[in-house]
Amino acid sequence: MMKYTEMTARQRQAEYDAVLADYEKQKALGLKLNMARGKPSTEQLNMVMDMCSVLVKPEDFVSDGIDSRNYGNVDGLPAAKALFADILGCKPEQCFVGGNASLQLMYDAISKAYTHGLLHSEKPWSKLEKVKWLCPAPGYDRHFKVTQTFGAELITVPMTADGPDMDRVEELIQDPAVKGMWNVPKYSNPEGVVYSDETIRRIASMKPAAPDFMLMWDNAYCIHEFEGDFVPFADILSLCAEYGNADMVYEFASTSKVTFPGAGVSVMATSEANLAYLKPIINIQTIGYDKINQLRHVKYLKNKEHTLALMQRHAAILRPKFHTVLDALDREIAPLGIGTWKRPMGGYFVSYDAMPGTAKRALALCKEAGVTMTGAGATFPYGEDPRDSNIRIAPSLPPVEELQQAIAIFCICVKLAALEKLGV
Amino acid sequence: MMKYTEMTARQRQAEYDAVLADYEKQKALGLKLNMARGKPSTEQLNMVMDMCSVLVKPEDFVSDGIDSRNYGNVDGLPAAKALFADILGCKPEQCFVGGNASLQLMYDAISKAYTHGLLHSEKPWSKLEKVKWLCPAPGYDRHFKVTQTFGAELITVPMTADGPDMDRVEELIQDPAVKGMWNVPKYSNPEGVVYSDETIRRIASMKPAAPDFMLMWDNAYCIHEFEGDFVPFADILSLCAEYGNADMVYEFASTSKVTFPGAGVSVMATSEANLAYLKPIINIQTIGYDKINQLRHVKYLKNKEHTLALMQRHAAILRPKFHTVLDALDREIAPLGIGTWKRPMGGYFVSYDAMPGTAKRALALCKEAGVTMTGAGATFPYGEDPRDSNIRIAPSLPPVEELQQAIAIFCICVKLAALEKLGV
């Protein structure tokens, strides 16, 4: 095999004819495969079924004297706060334990900035002329859409191998209209980048012009290694406090990829001052989240150590899937010089950078052949990848055999798109 | 016994001395009793424990081909929509099934009116000079607080035996700044009033000046009779549609007082056009609510008929509690002419109107004697009862023996407050 750019026109035409024939063959199979979303597989769901039998008798439902079945305790069960504090390395009193979705806690925190203002806001953001928001990209589409839906101007910050480009961030936060920044600091979505210690310190010590700057720290993959052991990670709350930024940070996590994606438990960890400000506002929205499900998780997951052991069992299911994808890329794409990717050690994605100007076309070809992928551009603000290059691959849901078929088709499609671009 | 107003000063003094002696005796017991919130009792929670064992094997978790354990289906499981449509008398496609709290669905609907605007809004309400809101009172304090927290001006509408004073409502909605109205149409909180057919028709046929008027229809007690059989109730969605107001109404209900208060399932029922508008906005807030809990409810409650049978078992627990309260009032207070109340047939409250100017004092006395009640004024906008008269009694939580003590103390306190007012 040789690089496509080094081929003669005739060689490229021959390659195109061969790849196109492969494509037509695959398309004729009428497959329906999905690598679009970071959904755990049925095998993973079946693995945690014991969670459904930890609460049986009425007395099981009582925790620290609180009947989890009844109303109340808007910030969650103390035992659930303790569990999350153990996992995140923060304090239980910094934890607000919510419902089944950390995305909802993020959305609601930002929504309250708009309707009520935050602890250090001069006024609700809905009364401001302009709100700008930093979006390290490639990043998580659902993050970007949250700030977009409230009308914020999204500013792309390039991702590096160490996290966001901090020179750029430090320059941008001089603007008081810049009110916040998205982060997935460990195994970033989609690249699997782990922010370096230096980047994290630079983030924690930022001096944004906005007094109510929101450092959104979505620690979605805090214990989600699929290669090797658990990698300890800095507690962003104490780091921020160390630099006088205690009220700047809002950390999020959930058990969506630990127990059940649709029925996990979420947490927002932030300063006690922020919680003292936010709790009465949230208490108007709800009397409390589902404490039974919180207690179910406490009884099943027990503590950090026990949870990490469970994560190793998830890893055993996920690892061969990531290897399937990465091996195929190594074998099929690497020699052709038409794409680059990183080898993540955790998280739920492989980020593939196609030859610029070919991502949309490649994914259109995938779709036509029955392989659903996250839309091209989704990893950038407004869904617009300026280079039309980044593609997010989510290998977790399909069984390995289906994944082999899906990634084979994906490789064919990126080849075809590259050949079309180079001219055949 | 004779009416306090008909007593001579000397008689009143003697009565005061006797009641005060009773009060001191009760206070000395150091009781800790609670009639503050409409919380179901432990007996009711224990009665529905079978709900926790309806989902066991992995295949139990699949409903209409959807794995309830995984992500997705922002508007809920089809089976859950069908259950709520059966109970409310609307269509499944009008139901958005949410998480554990209908209050949250109400808050979020109004929050989105402020941040995004509704289907027929000219702009988000946060961009308006003024938003006004109609609050039939006495009413539910948590309702009033939702609209207050967003800065709406709350306008009190008097409640009558048939529901809100519709002459007043029809006049007030001529103002385009009046954007909505709270309602608990069946067994209203706190009076237990069931809106009459005529009132409901007048509401459904309203012509508010605001094109995006929100008729908030909190059908919290839709199947919550504690005396007698289920009372059929109009489907407000089809009634509104009949009068060309299909998009005006947002109905809410939940299983908080059917299964577990803290871990039930909630629903918002509204026009398909409203849902088509709101679903994509809500889908930015969350990927979906807890579908496992939705399915648990579907399997346990089955359908309306089966749910009504369960509600009769709740009624059997609640009935003696309401009788305890009402009997005490009949016996202790009625002959004295110092208070009035209604005899509700369903819901969770007894509404007591004390001699004007004595509610705060009576509740302060209760508190001192160890009986916690909903704060005086809570049933009015801004927590201010202009007559300082209405008191909400919640008999559901304490066992009957405790309730007997609590209501005895309550009677003593309203007597003392009245005697103080009349002069001793």
Explain this structure.
The structure is a homodimer of 424-residue chains. By secondary structure, the first copy, chain A, is α/β, with parallel strands linked by helices. The first copy, chain A, has two domains: 4-45 and 308-422, Aspartate Aminotransferase, domain 1 (Alpha-Beta Complex); 63-302, Aspartate Aminotransferase, domain 2. Chain A is 40% helix and 15% strand. Chain A contains 13 helices and 15 strands. In chain A, the strands form four sheets. In chain A, strands 4-11-10-9-8-5-6-7 form an eight-stranded mixed β-sheet, sandwiched between helices. Chain A has a three-stranded antiparallel β-sheet with strand order 12-13-15, with helices on one face. In chain A, strand 12 (339-341) and strand 13 form a beta hairpin. In chain A, helix 7 packs across helix 8. The longest helix of chain A is centred in the C-terminal third of the chain and has 30 residues, at 304-333. Chain A is globular, with a radius of gyration of 23 Å. Chain A starts with 8 loop residues before the first helix and ends with a helix. The model of chain A has no long low-confidence stretch (mean pLDDT 97).
